[in-house]
Design goal:
The complex is a heterodimer of chains A (117) and B (113). Chain A has 117 residues and is mainly beta. In chain A, the strands form 2 sheets. In chain A, strands 2, 4, 5, 6, 9, 10 and 11 form a 7-stranded mixed beta sheet that branches. A 4-stranded antiparallel beta sheet of chain A has the order 1-3-8-7, with no helix packed on it. Chain A is globular, with a radius of gyration of 13 Å. Helix content of chain A is 0%, strand content 49%. Chain B contains no helices and 11 strands. In chain B, the strands form 2 sheets. In chain B, strands 2, 4, 5, 9, 10 and 11 form a 6-stranded mixed beta sheet that branches. Chain B has a 5-stranded antiparallel beta sheet with strand order 1-3-8-7-6, with no helix packed on it. In chain B, a hairpin with a 5-residue loop joins β4 (29-37) and β5 (43-50). The chains are: A mainly beta (117), B mainly beta (113). Chains A and B meet through β5, β9 and β10 of A and β4, β5, β9 and β10 of B.
């Protein structure tokens, strides 16, 4: 499987501030995604991080709130902007298309647990 | 919106018993994947079954897929306390270039020692 790390693993933030979450993969991957998991809920896709171009957002998620970067094939960041308590969630990145692995299997990072006060 | 519904929402069994979780989905899929999540941590990929497959095995796991009923099941045999976790199914679409997964609502499995 892919080795995926996320930083930070958890954080407690004040409302109105922003937090940038990093996702690093141990080798190049084709696809990178960002998901949100609200407390006690399942996962919801935020966006697909595209290398060298703007991310593709799902309905209900906008770039101003969740700007995403993907400067290369192993790294991506998600920023949660102007946070409110409703943004308290676990944020997970996932990857697909790692060389040597099944192309359509998605592997997930350990997640970032965000609490907004 | 979530593609899949899973039942039961919660399942409690004794160690050594088998656990069966079911997943239903709404649209045509390319594949269906099962994941495990321990207490709010990252997801661990368990098994992938493609739309042209009916059954797959991996260790103590058995997954079935019925595309005519748009449903899948995950069977864990001889369960252990360490199997206690949330289990999610996730589907990948057949159409479009996007490869994003749509997750079910999850089943919380508790295995009692």
């Amino acid at each position: 499987s892919a080795v995926i790390s996320q930083k930070p693993s958890r954080d407690i933030c004040q409302r109105g501030t922003s937090l940038t979450i990093q996702c690093q993969v141990d080798s190049q991957v084709t696809m990178m995604f960002w998901y949100r998991q609200q407390p006690g809920q399942s996962l919801t896709l935020i966006a697909t991080a595209n290398q060298g171009s703007e991310a593709t957002y799902e309905s209900g998620f906008v770039i101003d709130k969740f700007p995403i970067s993907r400067p290369n094939l192993t790294f991506s960041t998600l920023t949660v902007s102007n946070m409110s308590p409703e943004d308290s969630s676990i944020y997970l990145c996932s990857v697909e298309g790692k060389w040597g692995m099944a192309l359509d299997t998605q592997y997930f990072g350990p997640g970032t647990r965000l609490t907004v006060l | 919106s979530q593609q899949g519904e899973e039942d039961p929402q919660a399942l409690s069994i004794q160690e050594g018993e088998n656990a069966t979780m079911n997943c239903s989905y709404k649209t045509s899929i390319n594949n269906l994947q099962w994941y495990r999540q321990n207490s709010g941590r990252g997801l661990v990929h368990l098994i992938l079954i493609r739309s042209n497959e009916r059954e797959k095995h991996s260790g103590r796991l058995r997954v079935t897929l019925d595309t005519s009923k748009k449903s899948s099941s995950l069977l864990i045999t001889a369960s252990r306390a360490a199997d206690t976790a949330s289990y999610f199914c996730a589907t990948a679409p057949t159409s479009g270039s996007a490869r994003q997964l749509t997750f079910g609502s999850g089943t919380q499995l508790t295995v009692l020692p």
